[in-house]
Design goal:
This protein has 766 residues and is an alpha+beta fold. The protein folds into 5 domains: 77-201, PH-domain like (Roll); 223-383, PH-domain like; 420-538, PH-domain like (Roll), CATH 2.30.29; 547-612 and 730-765, no CATH class; 618-718, Recoverin, domain 1 (Orthogonal Bundle). Helix content is 27%, strand content 21%. It has 24 helices and 26 strands. A 6-stranded antiparallel sheet has the order 6-5-4-3-8-7. Strands 12-11-10-9-16-15 form a 6-stranded antiparallel sheet, with helices on one face. The N and C termini lie far apart (121 Å).
C-alpha cells in the first residue's frame, strides 16, 4: 500500500509513487542465513514508533521511509493520560454558583479513542466514574468532520467533548516524554481553581457534631508491631499484717500488644515456675477507690429521656461525655525495678526482670541500670508460712471405699476420687518391664487341705493394688481360678470406721518369708519370680531386704567377735563353694529372728557359684554357618567384603552391629535371623562393641580352617535365647567371694593360714 495524505482525494497526481527512491526491486526472502549454513526465519520489518503519524502527516518522513506495520501493533497498550477539570453550574446552593469537578482524560494511541473518567470521591453527592466511554470523538461543529487526535491535547488547552469544556492542567511522565519526542512542547502543570462548594461543605462538617462519635481506637497497628512481646518482672506482695498472711512471690507479665497485665504466684521452692493466677490478664488502673457503679463502664451516655410510656420514649446519646471520668491505666513507662504497683489496694514491689525486658528498656528508653533488689529478711523466713490445714472429715460409714466417701464429703456434686497419675505414668507397663511383683504363697490354716494350696500373689506398683490367683493341683478338690480380685488390701488390726483412710500393704511388705493377712486368710510368701527379685535388687534403696550392702553389714556385725570359729567350722573341704542349705543354716543360727528368707536369697544371688555354659560356642556356630552356606551354594564373599569396605570409608576395620546386620541381609546370606544374631555375638569386638568385619569374613570363609558339616538343626528354636533354661542361681555359693566382701581377710588368714587361702583362690581361678 502506498503512503498518501488522507485529506487529498484518491486521484492520479495526488498520490506518491512508492518506487521513488527505491534501489532494490527483488522480493524479500522469508528465510535468511545466520552464520554459515544456518537457515532461519528473520523479520525484515523495520519498526517505527511513530507509525500512525504517517497517515495524517506524511511530510515529516522522507519519501520511501514510511512504516510497514499497522498502528494497533506499534502502539499497543500505550495510553496518554491528562488531568483536567470542568465547571458545573449550581442553581440550588446559596453562596456557591458552580462546582469544580476533576477528571482524567485517556487517549489510546492504538486507535485514537478517548475516555473521560472522574475519580470517585467519598460522600460527594454526585454520580462519578466514567463520564465518556471509550470512543473516537469529533470536533464540535462546524469542524465535526474530523476527529480529535493527540496533537489537540496539551496543558493549558481547553477541549470541548460533547458540549462540556474540559481544561487540561497536567499529564503523566509517559505523556510528556512521548509528545516531546514528537516535537510538541508541553508546558508546566496548572493548579486547578478551588471548589467553592467543597469549601462551604467542609466548614459545615466542622461545625456539625456527630450524634454517635466513634469511641473505639484503632490498635491494630500496635498489635501487629508488638505481638508476642511480653515484659517479665518478678515481685512480691507482703501480706504478713493480716491473719494467716504470708509473703507472696509473684511473676508480673506486661503484654505490649494491648497494654494488659497478668500476675501469677510463683512457687516458693522454685521461683520460676508459675502457680495459680493472682490477677487475670487485663488493664490495671493506677488509682482504685471502689467498684464501679452500674453504667460507669458504658460506652454511651443517654440524655433527654422523654415520654412516660415505654413505646413513646426518646433517647439521645451525649456526644460530650458529660460526667465521664478518665481512668489512667498502668503502661510500660510505669514499670521498673523498685516500682510499686497498686493492684486493687495491694502493693506489689517489682524486684527483677528478664533479659528481654532489660534489652527493651535499654533500647527504647536508654536505661542501663537493672540492679535487682534484695529480698527483705521477712521473705526468707520459711517458718512464717503457716502449715497447710487438713480438713477433718466424718468417719467412714462402711458404704463404698474411703476415697469415694471422702470425695463426697468435700463436694456436693459426686466426683470420682483423684488418682496418683504421676505414679501411674512412672510404673505403667513399658515393653517387658511390667512393674508387677509376683510371689508364690501358701495358705496357713487349721484345715489341713488349705495348707497344701498354692497361690500366686501379684502386687501392682502402678496403684498399690494386689490380686491373688490360685494354682490348683490335680485331684486336689480345688479349681484353678481367681481367689481375690484386684484391689487395695488393708493392713490387719486397724480401726476401719475412722475419718482417716486406713493403711494398706506397700511394696516393702512383699518379700520372701513374709506373712500376709488378707481378708482373714493368712498367706506365707515362699518364692518370687526372676523379675521381682531383679527389680528389688535394682531398686535396693526402696527394698532393704534386697540391699546386699545392708544385709552384709548386719552379718559383719554379728560375725566380728566369732569370725575365726565361723570360718573354721564352715570351711569347705575340697571345692571353694558352699551349699545354700549349709550357709543358710549357719546364718539363721547366728542372726536369729532378724534374718529372713529373702535376705538369704539375696546373698545367694550376689555370690552365686553356678556356672552357665552355652550350648553353642564359636566353633559350633561357625560349623553350622558353613554348612548352611554349602547347602545353599552361596559363594559371594568378595561382594560381602566390598560392601564392608564401602560402608567403612576411613578403613578402620570396625563397624557397628547394625551395619553388619544390614550388609549381611543385603548380600542375601542364607541365614535365619537367629543365626545371624548368634554369629554377630561371637565375632571379635572392641571396647565400644563395634565388630571387626575382617574376623567376620574369616569366620565365613570356607577355605580358612575348614570344618566338618553338621546335621541340620532347628535354628529358630535351638538358637533362640529362651530355648536354653538358665540354671537357678544361688544353689551354690562362692565361699571366697562371700568372705572377701565381709572385708575380714586378715582374721580369715589367721584362722586357716595363708597357704590355705592361696590354694582356695587357685582352685577358684582354675
Amino acid at each position: 500500500m502506498s503512503s498518501r495524505c488522507p485529506d487529498l482525494p484518491f486521484l492520479p497526481g495526488y498520490t506518491f509513487n512508492p518506487n521513488i527512491g527505491r534501489t532494490k526491486f527483488n522480493m524479500d526472502p522469508k528465510f535468511d542465513f545466520i552464520g554459515k549454513g544456518n537457515m532461519a526465519l528473520v523479520d525484515k520489518v523495520k519498526p517505527n514508533m511513530f507509525g500512525p503519524l504517517s497517515d495524517k502527516y506524511p511530510s515529516i518522513y522522507p519519501r520511501g521511509e514510511s512504516i510497514e506495520i499497522p498502528g494497533w501493533i506499534a502502539f499497543d497498550k500505550q495510553i496518554l493520560c491528562f488531568d483536567g477539570f470542568f465547571q458545573e453550574t449550581l442553581q440550588e446552593l446559596r453562596g456557591s454558583p458552580f462546582q469544580i469537578r476533576k477528571v482524567k482524560i485517556y487517549f489510546f494511541l492504538e486507535d485514537g479513542t478517548i475516555q473521560v473518567v472522574e475519580p470517585r470521591v467519598e460522600n460527594s453527592g454526585v454520580a462519578q466514574g466514567t463520564l465518556i466511554s471509550r470512543q473516537r470523538i469529533r470536533f464540535p461543529p462546524p469542524m465535526d468532520d474530523n476527529f480529535y487526535d493527540f496533537t489537540d491535547f496539551n496543558i493549558g488547552r481547553e477541549v470541548e467533548l460533547y458540549g462540556r469544556v474540559f481544561k487540561i492542567t497536567n499529564c503523566d511522565k509517559f505523556t510528556r516524554t512521548f509528545m516531546n519526542r514528537c516535537g510538541i512542547a508541553i508546558g508546566d502543570a496548572i493548579v486547578a481553581p478551588p471548589d467553592p462548594y467543597m469549601e462551604i461543605r467542609s466548614h459545615q462538617m466542622d461545625a456539625m457534631q456527630p450524634k454517635k462519635p466513634n469511641r473505639t481506637a484503632d490498635t491494630l497497628g500496635k498489635f501487629l508491631q508488638n505481638d508476642k512481646k511480653v515484659l517479665h518482672f518478678k515481685g512480691y506482695w507482703d501480706d504478713k499484717d493480716t491473719e494467716y498472711g504470708y509473703v507472696h512471690h509473684l511473676g508480673i507479665r506486661y503484654y505490649l500488644a494491648d497494654d494488659t497485665i497478668e500476675i501469677k504466684e510463683l512457687q516458693v521452692q522454685s521461683s520460676d515456675e508459675p502457680g495459680f493466677i493472682f490477677l487475670r490478664r487485663g488493664k490495671l488502673p493506677q488509682v482504685y477507690k471502689e467498684l464501679p457503679s452500674p453504667g460507669d463502664d458504658s460506652h454511651n451516655t443517654v440524655l433527654n429521656v422523654l415520654g412516660s410510656a415505654l413505646s413513646s420514649r426518646r433517647y439521645l446519646i451525649d456526644p460530650l461525655d458529660c460526667g465521664r471520668h478518665k481512668v489512667c491505666y498502668y503502661t510500660e513507662k510505669d514499670l521498673s525495678i523498685g516500682a510499686i504497683l497498686n493492684c486493687y489496694g495491694r502493693k506489689i514491689v517489682l524486684t527483677d526482670c528478664d533479659s528481654f525486658t532489660r534489652g527493651y528498656y535499654a533500647e527504647k528508653y536508654g536505661i542501663s541500670e537493672f540492679t535487682p533488689l534484695e529480698i527483705p529478711d521477712i521473705i526468707k523466713k520459711a517458718e512464717d508460712i503457716p502449715p497447710p490445714k487438713h480438713r477433718e472429715l466424718p468417719p467412714w460409714n462402711g458404704f463404698g471405699t474411703h476415697e469415694d466417701s471422702a470425695q463426697n464429703c468435700i463436694t456436693v456434686e459426686p466426683k470420682a476420687p483423684h488418682k496418683d497419675f504421676k505414679k501411674f505414668l512412672a510404673y505403667d507397663r513399658v515393653g517387658l518391664d511390667s512393674h508387677i511383683l509376683r510371689f508364690e504363697a501358701r495358705m496357713k490354716s487349721k484345715i489341713p487341705e488349705n495348707c497344701s494350696r498354692i497361690f500366686i500373689i501379684r502386687y501392682y506398683l502402678s496403684d498399690d493394688t494386689m490380686a491373688i490367683f490360685e494354682v490348683a493341683k490335680r485331684n486336689s478338690g480345688f479349681a484353678t481360678s481367681n481367689f481375690l480380685a484386684r484391689g487395695k488390701i488393708i493392713l490387719p488390726e486397724q480401726k476401719v470406721f475412722t475419718s482417716k483412710p486406713p493403711l494398706c500393704y506397700t511394696p516393702q511388705h512383699m518379700f520372701i518369708g513374709a506373712t500376709l493377712i488378707i481378708n482373714g486368710f493368712e498367706f506365707i510368701l515362699l518364692d518370687a519370680d526372676e523379675y521381682a527379685l531383679r527389680y528389688m535388687e535394682l531398686n535396693a534403696g526402696q527394698f532393704p531386704k534386697a540391699n546386699i550392702k545392708i544385709i552384709m553389714d548386719k552379718v559383719k556385725e554379728k560375725l566380728r567377735p566369732i569370725y575365726k570359729d565361723f570360718v573354721a567350722e564352715n570351711l569347705p573341704n575340697e571345692s571353694p563353694v558352699i551349699s545354700y542349705e549349709r550357709l543358710r543354716a549357719k546364718l539363721c543360727e547366728l542372726m536369729g529372728q532378724d534374718f529372713t528368707e529373702h535376705e538369704m536369697v539375696t546373698i545367694s544371688r550376689a555370690f552365686s557359684a553356678v556356672c552357665y555354659k552355652d550350648k553353642y560356642n564359636r566353633d559350633k556356630i561357625r560349623a553350622l554357618a558353613l554348612t548352611e552356606l554349602k547347602r545353599f551354594l552361596w559363594d559371594d564373599l568378595d561382594r560381602l567384603k566390598e560392601y564392608f569396605l564401602q560402608r567403612d570409608p576411613p578403613r578402620s576395620g570396625k563397624l557397628s552391629k547394625k551395619d553388619c546386620y544390614t550388609i549381611m541381609k543385603a548380600c542375601r546370606l542364607p541365614f535365619d535371623k537367629e543365626l545371624i544374631e548368634r554369629i554377630l555375638q561371637v565375632v571379635k569386638k572392641d571396647e565400644q562393641c563395634n565388630l571387626y568385619y575382617e574376623d567376620l569374613l574369616q569366620f565365613l570363609d570356607r577355605t580358612n580352617c575348614p570344618m566338618p558339616d553338621v546335621p541340620p538343626v532347628n535354628v529358630k528354636y535351638d538358637l533362640w535365647w529362651g530355648s536354653d533354661k538358665d540354671p537357678v542361681p544361688g544353689s551354690l555359693i562362692d565361699w571366697c567371694a562371700f568372705n572377701r566382701y565381709l572385708d575380714l581377710e586378715s582374721t580369715f588368714k589367721e584362722a586357716v593360714g595363708e597357704d590355705t587361702v592361696n590354694n582356695i583362690e587357685k582352685s577358684v581361678s582354675s
